[in-house]
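hey so i finally got around to running both of the ones u sent me last week. sorry it took forever, my laptop kept dying halfway thru and i had to restart like 3 times lol. anyway pasting them below in the order u listed, first the sequence line then the structure token line for each. didnt double check formatting much so if smth looks off just lmk and ill redo it

first one:
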Amino acid sequence: MGRRSRIRRWARWGLGIAGGLLGLEVVSALWLPAPWPDRTPLVAVEPDPALGYRLVPAQASFTYQAEVHTNAEGLRERPLERLPGPRVLVLGGSETFGKGVAAAETFARRVEASLHGGAHTVNAGVPDWSLGQSAAFLEQRGAALSPTGVVLALYWDDLFTGAAGAAREEWGPRRWARDLGVLPRLAPLYTRSRLLMAARNAAKAASHRLGGTAWYRWREALLTGGQEPDLELAWARAQVDLQRVADASAALGAWAVVLILPIEEQVVGEYPQASFQSEARRRAEAAGLRVVDPLPALRRAAAAGEVLFIPYDGRPAAAGHQVLAEVLGAALADYQQTPR
């Protein structure tokens, strides 16, 4: 077979495969939700000797399609000098930071409307921060921010120790793409495809399940009430960190509450009675912290047909943040945020 014949045959195969994939992509719209494509540059972090890492200050980047601007302190927040009067500090990971949504759409910003005395919120959420990192931030930066109240948003993967301790497990292909420097180039491409996003999530789940990673085992145990020895150790660490939050808040003369953020399957899946919610409540109350549980309100909103979570991601979408803000605002109604 001549060279031209081989080239024509390869071209036909390539076109056939491309056409088939395009057809599947079109048909997949019948049962798969549309993904939220990434825009670049992606949110950047930098090492921090005390916290493991923090957001790069004064950056302009994106989380999905939403713009991210950080202030001089490395927070996704307005310049602090623009926030006079009493402040409420909101701590947490990706959910508090507001992955995928605009800064004004986060529950941290929306709950301001419910605060008394013209209080402002300070969003100190950083993607993938652990509970220990949030506690360390409060201990080290709390005095400078002078909050009258502290809200800690606790999500299940905040139990991982994060960059400040043992490294949080990251899915292999994503880690390799990041290490090779191609992730920022690939993300805007594959995040536009329903098929690729569904395949990515399926491959990620299979990799974690077959590899027996802590990420998969802990999540399953928290949803089903199963027992995992290292998860018990993580809860013991969480108890210590929750006490750190309580003690640091008391030292500042600030009230403190814990907002327990449910796993997506607790809201729209088959695990409404997952053990994460009850164990998180038990640990927080043992530390003397007040607990706010938005699960019932989120389930009502989901039953009404609202899209509360980002497709293929599981973090709250704008509608989810709105429900969180409403529940948190109602719980904080009896707090009077007045200057000390």
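and the second one:
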Amino acid sequence: METKVETLEDGRLKVVATVDAADVDARIKKTYKDFANKYNFPGFRKGHAPRPVIDNALGKEAVVASVTDDVINDTYPLVIDQLRLYPLGHPQFDQADLVKGGQPYSFSFTVAVKPEIELDDYSPVAIDLPPAGATDTEVDEQIELLRQHYQTLEDAPANTKVKADSYVELALEATDAAGEPVASLTSESRPYVLGSGLLPESFDENLVGLKKGQEAEFSIDVPEDAPVLLSGVQGKTDKLNFKVTVNAVKKEVLPELNDQWAKDTLGFDTLEAVREQVRNSIDAQKAAMLPRMKEGRILEALAARATAEAPEGMVEEAESNLLQDFFRQLQAQGMSFDMYLNQAGITPDQFKADVKQQAADVAKQDLALDAWAKHEGIEATDEDVVAEFAASGVEDPAKTVEEWRAAGNLHFVRQGILRTKAVTRLMDEAVVTEVEPGSEDEASKAKKASKPKAKKAKKDAAEDKVAADIAEGDAAAAADVAAEAAAEQSAE
């Protein structure tokens, strides 16, 4: 088989493949034999009808049309593998003539492929990573997290003003736009935390500055994306009227950290024993997380060296893969999509935007990794491919390779091998600087601050789990969860 490749103006490739005349003749002979065995031709035993009889019965072009389809369908995957192409989407085949006996056969197609880009720097990547072991600061933070779960609320002095993050106790009277009472929002005594998101910000704004015993009457609009406490009235009224009395402003009282607290509350003999448990757990969590963190930061740094963005086809493919993985994980956790959005504190539109951005980042990282691998002369050989299938446990690796090649999917395996080799070498050669948590530069801090909702949701979930473990008497598990939160904070 011979091939010719032409790069078109839009970046797609036009490929012309030519199959030998001997292959065409063999296929024609086999197809006549198959048709003779498949159909009944009067006057001839099955499998013995001559070509003229078959042509007369099925049509002169029936056999060559079938052979033409087979040649194209069977050869296209081999062309992709031979040329080491990585298609994006399906090929577009040009109008093809029918095969002719004794003559070579050519067909052509155009296909979008993964582009090859350059990096502006191919030197080893330099990254920052947190220390491998737990730091005193991390341990202190997680001990404080445990402590905060045992805070109590007491009445603040009567002259204390409500602030944007205050704990308060309210008496509420609520009516809808028609003046009808809203029972779900009416209460003589309801605890409430400003800034919690349970009610709109416009509700909170009317409370700021009030003191114990003071009242406020106001109206707020019901937003389209109503918070949880307004879900029962959404679609029933567009406005709510409130009469609110501040019964009390609360203040937080934290327990004193000492051996007695550790024993009575967490079941440890001493506070130092709690610290040791947290330290050991952070060490274990970091040992599991740091390799992934290192790889992620290397790929981010490598992508920053790319001289071009990933094409839309690659981004769409990455987005599809991300969504499949995401919903597979949700299903495994028994969580609905709405539950996830509520826990993460984001809207469906924000979720879509996040996934699209992640997909663009992943696609660009892949292109940068491919460019670095090519520059370093890294290849995925046939031996590598066979070894990959052997490692997966298939019974006949060589046969499986040919099956994947015939299906046009072998390039996925080669691509995975190539990138794995490249990542391994990059991690071996990376220049790593250990940075204490909290000492990042302002640019890093700004980047971390760009995703506050997701981080807050993760922190809240960790705190809830800690509280649940402690409530069930499992202090060690609580310390482990707190440690995991510390490790994830370092990762971010």
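quick thing i noticed on the 2nd:
The longest strand covers residues 239-253.
anyway thats it, ttyl
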